[in-house]
TrEMBL record, chain A:
This is Sorbitol dehydrogenase family protein. InterPro entries: FAD-SLDH_ssu. Residues 1-34 form the signal peptide. The keyword Signal applies. It comes from Candidatus Kirkpatrickella diaphorinae. Pfam families: FAD-SLDH. Keywords: Signal.
UniProtKB/TrEMBL annotation, chain B:
Residues 32-134, 178-287, 326-414 form the Cytochrome c domain. Its main location: membrane. Keywords: Cell membrane, Heme, Iron, Membrane, Metal-binding, Repeat, Signal, Transmembrane, Transmembrane helix. The lineage of its organism: Bacteria, Pseudomonadati, Pseudomonadota, Alphaproteobacteria, Acetobacterales. Residues 1-27 form the signal peptide. It is found in: Cell membrane. InterPro entries: Cyt_c-like_dom, Cyt_c-like_dom_sf, Cytochrome_c-type_DH, Membr-bd_ADH_cyt_c. The chain crosses the membrane at residues 445-465. This is Cytochrome c.
């Protein structure tokens, strides 16, 4: 399936790559680039964009694929927005996320796109979610798309002390005792 | 007169005081003997077989799966009617060390072949403990042992005993706590390790040429515990052996399940550290036996095959249709659903290794995946001094094909990838059907038994003939 998607997007990616190479060289600036928005983003570019946004060198490709298709399903214009975001970040040589505030001040419309991507990776779902574990049948706002469970990034910062629900991290009844590291935490 | 009475009273007081102190001295002596008997009974693990889980101690009724059929263990409480309350010390001794109870010959499922090496003092202490301190259980085991012909004729054990019982008394090493000598006594006599850990010949007697080289118990594999660094436990440290016996687990090596978990639960965790050290020291001296073809220890499969988190971490189809379908046989998905919540997605176990890693683990690294399959089927239950160890049994949740699939996944990713499990293997182990012996060898055994009995009769006839000749002279 992934192979098909890559094949279908081949032309655009090539075009995009050409743009990325040519545009800075002729100093057309971001306005000119924005005038020719791409309407798609390759899975590889989405993975790199995600890695940039969440500040990680490695992210899982399969999870990335689920995030991209989930976000696209909820917003058909998402690939174009993501593509523009990635191009702008590269065009402006934004080194890392410490400079994101300055960047998003220049591009308020791109801030929202960035947040939806980050939120899909951290929360493990995208779209609107009514709070139920299982999407309610026929619920008007529940269009949540599954992205990841154990791989959701929100668990990572506290994984030494907290538990991914249903994944044990200690002995039986471990929740009864506070973690040993609590004094240091 | 008054002074006489006074003297008399004083005399009486002195005499009764003496009698009383004598009595308490005797009581203290008895108590010491009983305590000693209780420790020996613990170390001999009498509880594991003579107590049916959920029933009073030593009431019997526990089922031992043997290749010939189930053997139901008798009541050995102090009940006069159903237990051993009426037995004399001589009868107790004969049952314990020779396998002949007042009710008839015992089967060698009772480790009398090892207990034959017990010292007289220890046998006495055990008798005092069982006859005086064990609470009577006033009912017999519900089931009865029914073995197929000819094994239901207990007298055949006469010939077997003649051939396979070694009555050498092993020095107890009691004066040398923690010594190899003490360990030898514990391993070979009291703790009867060889009952499970020594391979057996076709007559179900221990192969004396390969002591402790590994055996089979109701489908489980009791591993090689000789000093061989690859097939045995030669590469384990003394401390690791002690920890294993106490906790039933050593990080990065092995966990006890099945009968060994029972031995830890009922016996080893109560033993003195010096005795555990003695066992560890002795095991280090047992001549190594290498399993031909084995190149590295079972626990040495250390590198898991990584799987993309995205593959493991997938959305479950929660439609009612898919929920009804519990028949998937994809090992990976079964692993994620049934195993990963404790052993973690990449098989690394929990950080404290309470739920052990599936790599560096004898259960998954063995060339014989019996113990892995049986752990999945029957679960693990082990009480230790620091709490309960528990793995659920999946025999009612997963079918044979599913257990084979998940076991294969585990072997492939975390253990020895050359080991394979088929649904037929699972079926055999599920029903504790160790009958491959029976089917293949029953004729040999009957044949062998006939020969043994014949030989015994021949020996008897010859000796009778000789005696008569001597008399005639």
């Amino acid at each position: 399936m992934r192979a098909n998607r890559v094949a279908a997007s081949g032309l655009t990616r090539r075009f995009l790559l050409k743009c990325a190479a040519v545009i800075p060289a002729v100093s057309l600036g971001r306005r000119a680039f924005a005038a020719q928005p791409s309407t798609d983003i390759s899975s590889q570019d989405f993975l790199q964009l995600s890695q940039f946004l969440v500040g990680r060198a490695h992210l899982d490709e399969i999870v990335a694929g689920r995030a991209l298709s989930g976000l696209t399903l909820n917003d058909p214009n998402f690939p174009g927005k993501a593509s523009a975001l990635w191009a702008a970040l590269r065009a402006e040589n934004v080194a890392d996320m410490t400079h994101f505030d300055e960047f998003s001040a220049r591009h308020p419309e791109m801030r929202a796109t960035s947040i939806t991507i980050i939120s899909a990776w951290y929360l493990g779902y995208c779209g609107k979610y009514d709070g139920h574990a299982v999407p309610a049948v026929g619920h008007p706002v529940d269009n949540a798309q599954y992205v990841a469970y154990a791989a959701a990034l929100m668990y990572a910062p506290t994984i030494d002390a907290t538990v991914i629900p249903s994944y044990s991290r200690g002995r039986t009844n471990y929740w009864f005792y506070p973690p040993k590291t609590i004094a240091r935490d | 007169m008054a002074s006489f009475l006074k003297r008399l009273a004083m005399g009486c007081a002195v005499i009764s005081a003496c009698a009383l102190s004598l009595g308490t001295a005797r009581a203290a002596h008895d108590q010491k003997l009983i305590d000693r008997g209780a420790y020996l009974a613990r170390s001999g693990d009498c509880m594991a077989c003579h107590t049916n889980p959920g029933h009073p101690s030593y009431g019997g009724g526990y089922k031992i799966t043997s290749p010939f059929g189930d053997i139901i263990v008798p009541n050995i409480s102090s009940s006069k009617k159903y237990g051993i309350g009426n037995w004399t010390e001589k009868q107790f001794d004969r049952a314990l060390r020779q396998g002949i109870s007042p009710r008839g010959y015992l089967y060698p499922a009772m480790p009398y072949t090892q207990y034959a090496h017990l010292s007289d003092a220890d046998t006495h202490a055990l008798y005092v403990y069982f006859s005086q301190a064990v609470e009577p259980v006033e009912y017999p085991p519900v089931d009865k042992t029914h073995l197929p012909f000819p094994f239901n004729i207990r007298q055949i054990m006469f010939g077997w005993n003649l051939l396979f019982t070694d009555k050498t008394v092993i020095p107890t090493g009691e004066d040398k706590p923690g010594s190899v000598e003490r360990g030898r006594y514990l391993v070979r006599a009291l703790a009867h390790c060889s009952a499970c850990h020594t391979p057996r010949n076709i007559f179900m007697a221990e192969k004396t040429s390969k002591p402790l080289a590994g055996g089979r118990v109701g489908g489980w594999i009791a591993p090689n515990i000789t000093s061989d660094p690859i097939s045995g436990i030669g590469s384990w440290t003394e401390e690791e052996i002690i920890t294993y016996l106490r906790q039933g687990a050593v990080e990065g090596k092995a966990q006890a399940a099945g009968s060994m978990a029972e031995a830890v639960q009922h016996s080893f965790r109560f033993m003195q550290k010096s005795d555990l050290r003695a066992i560890a020291r002795y095991l280090k001296t047992v001549p190594p036996v290498r399993d031909p073809g084995q190149e590295k220890p079972d626990y040495a499969f250390q590198n898991p095959r990584r799987v993309d988190i995205g593959i493991l971490d997938r959305a479950e189809n929660r439609s009612p249709g898919s929920m009804e379908n519990g028949k998937i046989v994809i090992g990976e998905r079964l692993y994620v659903g049934a195993c990963a919540s404790c052993h973690q997605l990449q098989g690394q176990g929990t950080e404290d290794q309470f739920y052990p890693s599936l790599t560096s683990n004898t259960a998954t690294g063995s060339r014989y995946p019996n113990n892995l399959v049986l752990a999945i089927l029957k679960g693990v239950h082990r009480r230790t001094n620091t709490g309960m160890v528990f793995m659920p049994a999946f025999e009612d949740q997963l079918d044979d094909a599913q257990i084979a699939a998940v076991a294969d996944y585990v072997l492939n990713h975390f253990g020895n990838p050359s080991a394979r499990v088929t649904p037929a293997d699972v079926k055999r182990l599920r029903h504790a059907d160790v009958g491959f012996w029976t089917v293949r060898l029953i004729s040999n055994i009957i044949f062998g038994t006939v020969i043994i009995v014949g030989l015994v009769i021949l020996v008897l006839v010859i000796s009778l003939f000789r005696r008569r000749r001597r008399r005639q002279r």
